[in-house]
Design goal:
The chain is α/β, with parallel strands linked by helices and about 325 residues long. It has nine helices and 14 strands. The protein folds into two domains: about 5-130 and about 310-325, NAD(P)-binding Rossmann-like Domain (Rossmann fold, 3-Layer(aba) Sandwich), CATH 3.40.50; about 130-305, Dihydrodipicolinate Reductase, domain 2 (2-Layer Sandwich). The structure holds adenosine-2'-5'-diphosphate (A2P).
């Protein structure tokens, strides 16, 4: 008989948490029991899963232990820092959506299509990368593999749902509860806090996480991250310089044949990836594939994906699927 798994979602009432529950249902994971946790504010509320209403429980230090096998966290960095080590010590494998463990050299940062196979039974806290990073590295990994990338320039157009419920509320109500300026009136070239070097934390995440996932710190990476007034899906304009020369049609073909990527690149018919069309889908959409004639071996891509799905929920559910497929839990 096929095994079934006892799974928990921490932050179940949040924007990403609710998407995780939807993706778990759609992907038909072999789940024997699903437990949902959030703060005391949400305890007692219910969320539907496979035709049943599951009651949200308050997360406590006793919550995450056997028989729970996998806990998917999306409740912010502070909650992860406090509860993920407790869960791991209790033998529960944690998949963490926050940035708490991503750059910890003892934790793996996983995009299953790229490096899912490096997971072992030793990995008790597994980090899910930043949303913009996930959708960017998927096409970049295949290009790097084939043509060796020297330099990457990221410019992002990120949806407000990346900032959780408070971000959506600022867009819908014209408030400035979460953002520094009214997002209904402007794009904002600041995501997360500024660092001493003039970059924002979001930009540093894209730079550092790209290096870690690709396992190559020699690639020059820079980023400008911008919040835009739309609810769902991030877009990233990516400028790449490779070491080896490439054929642009070959690049288009490689990308089209990469699992998890859909190429939409038909300029004669004005077809390219659009944020509202990517919303609700799991794939990363790539278009505007063209040479950058200003440098040798230069390439431009426009990459769009649903930040709540492949950028967060779907990627973490795929990590759970990988753990199950490799029999690691
Ligand atoms: P709650 O809804 O009970 O506050 P979002 O990023 O969409 O705002 O979601 C954040 C998620 O993290 C929510 O599910 C929220 O629960 C949960 N959360 C926040 N703080 C805690 C905490 N201290 N313990 C457990 N869950 C928390």
């Amino acid at each position: 008989m096929n095994k079934e798994y006892h799974i928990a979602v921490v932050g179940a009432s949040g924007v990403v948490g609710r998407t995780i529950i939807e993706v778990l249902e759609e992907h038909e994971l072999p789940i024997s029991n699903l437990q949902l946790f959030a703060s005391a504010r949400s305890a007692g509320k219910t969320i539907p899963f496979r035709g049943e209403d599951i009651v949200i429980e308050e997360l406590t230090e006793e919550s995450l232990q056997s028989p729970i096998q996998i806990a998917i966290f999306s409740a912010g960095g502070d909650t992860s820092k406090k509860y993920a080590p407790i869960a791991a010590a209790n033998g529960v494998t944690v998949i963490d959506n926050s940035s708490a463990f991503r750059m910890d050299e003892n934790k793996k940062l996983i995009v299953p299509e790229i490096n899912g196979k490096i997971l072992t039974t030793e990995d008790k806290i597994i980090a899910n990368p930043n949303c913009s990073t996930i959708q960017s590295v998927l096409p970049i990994a295949v290009i790097h593999d084939k043509y060796s990338i020297e330099r990457i320039v990221y410019s992002t157009y990120q949806a407000v749902s990346g900032a959780g419920q408070a971000g959506i509320s600022d867009l819908e109500n014209g408030t400035t509860e979460n953002f520094q300026y009214p997002i209904v009136e402007t794009v904002i070239p600041q995501i997360d806090v500024f660092q001493d070097n003039g970059y924002t934390k979001e930009e540093e995440k894209m730079i550092n996480e790209t290096h870690k996932i690709l396992g190559d710190t020699n690639i020059g990476v820079t980023a400008t991250c911008v919040r835009v007034p739309i609810k769902t899906s991030h877009a990233v304009s990516i400028n790449i310089q490779t070491t080896k020369s490439f054929d642009i049609d070959e690049i288009r073909e490689f990308l089209a044949n990469t699992p998890g990527i859909t190429v939409i690149d038909d300029i004669e018919n004005n077809r390219y990836p659009l944020q509202h069309e990517a919303a609700g889908k799991d794939d990363v959409f790539v278009g505007r594939i063209r040479r950058d004639h200003s440098i040798e071996n230069g390439l431009n891509l426009f990459v769009v994906s649903d930040n709540l799905r492949k950028g967060a929920a779907t990627n973490s559910v795929q990590i759970a699927e990988q753990l199950i497929a490799l029999d690691l839990v």
